[in-house]
Design brief:
The complex is a heterodimer. Chain A is an alpha/beta fold. Chain A has ten helices and 14 strands. Helix content of chain A is 34%, strand content 16%. In chain A, helix 1 crosses helix 2. Chain A starts with 15 loop residues before the first strand and ends with a helix. The mean pLDDT of chain A is 96. Chain B is of the alpha/beta class. Chain B is 29% helix and 26% strand. Chain B has an eight-stranded mixed sheet with strand order 3-2-1-4-5-8-6-7, with helices on both faces. Chain B is globular, with a radius of gyration of 16 Å. Classes of the chains: A alpha/beta, B alpha/beta. The interface between A and B is medium-sized, with 22 and 20 residues.
Amino acid sequence: MDTSTPARSVGAVTPQTASFSEPLPLRCGRSIAPYELVYETYGRLNADRSNAILVCHALNASHHVAGFYADDPDNVGWWDNIIGPGKPVDTDRFFVIGVNNLGGCFGSTGPMSIDPATGRPYGASFPLVTVEDWVAAQARLADHLGIERFAAVMGGSLGAMQSLSWTRQFPERLRHALVIACAPNLSAQNIAFNEVARQAILTDPDFHGGDYYAHGATPVRGLRVARMVGHITYLSDDAMASKFGRQLKNGSIGYGFDPEFQIESYLRYQGGKFAEYFDANTYLRITKALDYFDPALDFGGDLSKALAAARAAFLVVSFTTDWRFAPERSREIVQALLRNQLDVTYGEIDAPHGHDAFLLDDPRYHALVRAYLDRIHAEIGRAAR
Amino acid sequence: MKGPRADFAVIAGRIRPGAKVLDLGCGDGSLLRHLRESLDVRGYGIEIDDAKIPACVKNGINVLQMDLESGLSGFDPGSFDYVILSLTLQAMKNSERILSEMLRVGREGIVSVPNFGYWRNRIQLAMGRMPVNDEFPHHWFDTPNIHLCTLTDFEVFCVQHRIRILERIALHEGREVSSLPNLRGSLVVYRFGSGA
């Protein structure tokens, strides 16, 4: 097997762990300590520490953003198509950081971790963390890495909510925010889908009120259904039609409940795969973080007031076929930024793939991100002189 | 088009330093870049063409990818000092609406339009052919221009729609034309505000 580094990959990467002993106060009123954050970095931090880019992950992703693991070369980072040497987020220029959020299931402190107070996994007792809590934890990681100000914080979907939140919570700590396939809050329909996913998990007999670890059980059935529901919302009707249509798995109808249509088989496969590696308690918490995200809430519903503290320049990108976080939702963000007279570039990419488009290699989308990052690179170069 | 466009210098000459400017159909953003560099304006551009968005970003301007045909609903009334529509009006479906939107969002509007009444156009038409020249480089079958007007047509329209023309600059080959503008001007720049 060829184990050489593929062209334009950051190559083999190694996750690192940062430990924090100072309690982190959470929005829910509780706090957490000690805690750990697992992260990866790509590229080199420059002498004046001005070229760092933080990448925030969405629902099911992790700190493994780019590159691969030496002992698992097929495990390629989830945003590897945009991050690497010579790629739109060019690791020859930028120092890129991926971090697994608090409450995650890829190594950062989460429901699966041992609660030092009890010596047992947190399970159901792990607090409900919010986007704001994640951002606060990420800021501590930035302190740990000696980064006072990011060149950019970027993310798609829930990751974009974090970059948006950065601009309010730590306005002086980032030059740019890349807010891709985002919404300023979830619609009733979005929350409804999340609730179906949660109910699938919560009603799985193997859930045991969230303390399934002690029972040696995993609510895989619930997780599978949760992922299936989620997956439907990531794809556009057209993308599903062109990929699967009404194709049958075995060429004919069998008059039964085994998967017959290709789409059924695809969803079951995706659900099954997901349930093998993702933690149900984490899934529940991340969907809640999505539901709760609403920066305008404390400002009488006025998003522009919520963003009045922001100082960053923005790149906002939406995708025309994204019905989960439709372009109108991104335009709400743009309008709020305009009202604050902030620098903003808005791209509305006519991509067929739905919400998932932010993860895919669309040349127009990537050209825009590349151009924007070229500009950031030039700007930090000027600032250094 | 070669070099800076003929109407850019004229438009720039009408804009107060430090003003807030919205450029509709901003192309690659070169006008806004020029305005920012020479007049320190705070600007945003609107453009629909995918290929031009990264070009705007390279020019360092704020660009919003939106369709002008659906209006400027994302913009608050009076949020700009100037709203510019440079060589775009003639290609828009809803030209009436965009002009009123310009004056809703901006205190003043600046448009540049090719003058269909320019004498060469008249001669080409008199010879029985649709004009094809520097200002109208397209043929009838491939032109994006659907709402062509003469200088006089535009001014009559403004009176009818209670748009007050504050300034008119008729141009040919980048130079101002003082007499017989509807005959000798191939391109016209208007600065206008609300109220007849």
